[in-house]
Design the sequence.
């Protein structure tokens, strides 16, 4: 459906607004799952988010951000809510980045160079391996 059809189809705007409402709720759920680190739930929500965005693209005919400029003023509320969704997505992205940084920091701290100790860590396949530490670290203190 093109943007022009979205403006002439009387059902397009109500359908798009219903999708935006579902997207807003989903982004709030995504934030909650990131806070609680419920990663299985986060993956499911990511798929739902992708599906909603695809559905919105079909309803509105918007493929690029610039396509939204072709929508007339009756779509202003829709565009404002989509901007709000963008901000919610960016908030979630920031939280995700912070969580990843914390995990990287924890992993880095486990790789302290201590010649007297060995450490069991998981490799990429989830297998435990013993790592022999080398160099100076906490034991030098």
Sequence:
């Amino acid at each position: 459906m093109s943007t022009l059809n979205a403006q002439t189809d009387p059902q397009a705007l109500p359908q798009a607004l219903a999708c935006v409402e579902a997207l807003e709720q989903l982004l709030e759920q995504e934030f909650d799952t990131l806070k609680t680190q419920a990663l299985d739930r986060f993956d499911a929500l990511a798929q739902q988010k992708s599906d909603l965005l695809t559905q919105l693209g079909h309803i509105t005919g918007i493929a690029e951000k610039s396509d939204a400029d072709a929508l007339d003023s009756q779509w202003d509320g829709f565009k404002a809510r989509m901007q709000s969704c963008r901000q919610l997505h960016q908030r979630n992205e920031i939280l995700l980045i912070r969580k990843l940084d914390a995990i990287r920091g924890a992993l880095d701290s486990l790789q302290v160079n201590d010649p007297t100790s060995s450490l069991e860590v998981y490799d990429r396949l989830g297998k435990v391996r013993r790592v022999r530490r080398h160099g100076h670290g906490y034991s030098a203190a």
